[in-house]
Amino acid sequence: MGDLFNSENKELLIWAVPLLPLLGFLINGAFGRRMNLASSGGVASGAVVCSFIIAVYMFIQYVPTAPIMSDGYTWMGTAGFRIDFRLLVDRLSGLYMLVITGVASLIHIYSVGYMSHDEGYARYFAYLNLFVFSMLMLVMGDSLVTLFLGWEGVGLCSYLLIGFWYKEMPNAIAGKKAFIANRVGDFGFMIGMFLIFWHFGTLGYTDLIGRAAEVAATDHTLLNWACICLFIGACGKSAQIPLYVWLPDAMAGPTPVSALIHAATMVTAGIYMVARMNFVFVHAELAMDIVAIVGGVTALFAGTIGLVQRDIKKVLAYSTVSQLGFMFMAAGLGAFNVAVFHVFTHAFFKALLFLGSGSVIHALEHTLGHGNPDSQDMWKMGGLKEKMPITMATMTVGAMALSGIPLFSGFFSKDAILFTAFHRGDLLGYIIYGLGVLAAICTAFYSFRLIGLTFFGKWRGNEHAYAHADESPRSMTMPLIVLALFAVLAGYLWLPPALAHPIGIDHPWFEEWLAPAWAAAQANLPEGSHYRFSTEHHIGAEWMNILISSVIAIGVAVFAFMIYSKPQGLEKVKQLAFVGEGDAQRMTPWYKLLLNKYYVDEIYEKLIIGPIRIASDVLFVVVDVIVIDLLFVNGSAMLVKASSDLGRKMQTGYVRHYLYAFAVGMVVLSALFLLIANQR
Amino acid sequence: MPEPKVVLFLAAFLFCCGVYGVLSRRHLIMILMSLELMLNAINIMLVTFSRHWAGKNHDMLGAHAGQFFTLMVMAVAAAEVGIGLAIIVALYRRKHTADADAATDLKN
Amino acid sequence: MIVVFWVSFIVALVGSALLITQKHAVYALLGLLIAFGASAGVFLSLDAPFIAVSQILIYAGALAVMFLFVLMFTDTRTDEDTGLPGAVGSRAVFDPATGRPAKKKKKKKADEEAKPSPFSGLVMPKPMAVAVSLALLVCFTAAIVTLPSGFNRFGPLPSAYDGINFEGVERSADQIKSDPNLLPFGSTEAVSRTIFEGFPLAFEVVSLLIFAAVLGAVLLARRHLVGIPGTQDVAKESGHA
pTM for this structure? Predict the structure, then answer.
């Protein structure tokens, strides 16, 4: 073992990071039925924690000097086509690796407490470990193909975990929805991969980066198409318009899953992919603009829906969609490092918020019963701060980070995004900035609406449930506290220059750290491109930006909190939302529109799913029943039966007859040979 | 020295005698004996070609390859006869005859 | 040598004719033996003394004795005078439905056996078999006749092979006798060098094959075969006497 840790073996040791969770999956998958909660959860958490420790070691020891290219083998290889199965841990994937294993460790530990009353815990931990493995393969693979392998793996795990309580129909349907929406995206992603392979003949990052200059000189139409297709894939995975519809429904899964998969890690895979391929994207201006606009619109769109949701997890889900929109905004403006920074901070505070909401749900489910929608309805909560102080405190920290209250991590990353948009200086930049500011207002509002409704004011639900609600066990609160710490501190890795310069930091760690990831793209950018990282700083503009963001965030947060933590405020909200009294009470049109999520699901149902259903019914009857079943399946069986009946009669059983056949064959063959030989 | 074509004709004749025997006989041992005659004919052919090669080429291994294959055929024939006769004995135990037409279990 | 060849040629023809015409299995076996012995003569005339001796040892010695033994175990009178009712002269002896001998031609057989003839020891020629094997012979003969002229006569052999370089060399008889590295064509030394230096793997594999054959023969011919009804009674008879 000592040998394993010397530097020559880093190429091998790095495999331990993804393979330990896989081992955990195999153990839990194979023997889970015979394991109790402690051993099952212990194996799963242990695997991920060990993986985290190794990841930290590798990250500190080797990644700063040079990327680790692991040992591997040729996965597929034909003439002119070669895919290696290797891991590539450079600064970008190393950072992701650390976030994934770190957050996953905490969530695994949290899950031991959360899933203690569920009988399917072994299955749960097996899936969760498989997810961590797939996610690590996604970020650590050295080519788009290995990325795609992980991409599909996390999609599968997401499907399995959304439908974890598969006995209830809506959960199963939500799982299917996620799977199908992702398939649509994957289709685009594959087309994008094919386009890149078609033109460059390789899909490995190192190969492609080595040819960045050639990429820059390539026909931009092709690059635009390739990038748009890749972005469609990212839309599916990272829940952007028009494929975002699965993510809110994905909240049907266990809450820690929502925290890990549907907030912190998997949904950011799209950002990772775009950031990974940055040296291609920067040359596809049209695709970049589409990315930015889709991101901005999604951020605002999902943010407005989040304003009115009653389900605590739905609010967080729409918030996640909205924050992913922010990330794509940054990526689309060429600030990939800012996008990754927001991924980084978001992972902590969103995981924290989800785990906090899980803690609340766990406390209420205890009396309300599992799956009771009341346990997630914020209108039936209130005043829980007395009962669950740790949850309340940590979630408030998370909400502050999310809404961008100054000096919390979300503030720094979101501010950087808005500043990037503002600083761009053209129409697109201002549009994106406007969308971003509006979305930030929504964010601050729904964050503190959530806090106010859940923890403050008076209890509005079942008295019995309130009486029995209690702080969650330590295995659940401990991760909350750790995540809260990170939710505050993660932002300080990249202080904006306006704040950093006065205290003597010229090169913030995060920016410095990721610089090599964009070096190839930056080196090949033409002069005056929007996507060049500017070297000079605009301290004045930045201060202005910081002030605007801070005022908005604090003002809106306080406003929302004041309304929703007080009964009078709630009355006001009801007056705004509803018209009329008693039975005649109706929702106001805007409220109704938002509550029904702009009717997107219904529109999809009418426009896409309905026609597909009709077409597939027709196909089922014509192709499946008549052509395949009757003609091919039964037809071929009948043909075989008829011909073998015929052949059966030829078997007389007399050895003599077989010998005759043999001898005659011999005669015919030798005569044939003779004829052919004499003809030459 | 005999002429190669004459020797080959002898081999062909013996082979065809074997074929006739296999086709016309019903006693399994007779069929087996005819098979042996066919193998023997092949051996003659192999040795002929071996000698022919040796008269044209000057490498020792190539010249003796035909004879080596003859030995292989003999070994295989010995194995085959061993198994074949064992099968005949087993069949005789079951059917109380060594007639090939009695063994019609493959029918239909 | 040419005399040896022609004598062997004729004897081989006679032997094979015996094999295919004789009704009695032991006579047929005798014919086979004659053919084998004649083949040994052919080998000798083709400068393959080692093969000739092996032929005598393996075919004429071992195989023929094995055939004799098995003929002793089984019914020698089978074939045309099988003893089974209605087995003579007809191809459709066995009723396909029952697998048992059919009975229709019993009378004719009795007639034939009544008057002995000079051909009574021979089997009736089977037209189909004759046709097929004759066709084959025609094909083969045609192939032999059309062989290129290089096959008209055998080329001269080198007087010996240099066993170290495997090359044919011209040496006097005295030199061949005195030098152990010089091996004449077809000699035991030359053939064994070929086996062990040219084809050792094939040689080893054949040993495995024979081993498998021995095992198979023992298993098949064993008296007590569990689960096979035909052998069950035999086991009872002999095992618990």
Answer: 0.66
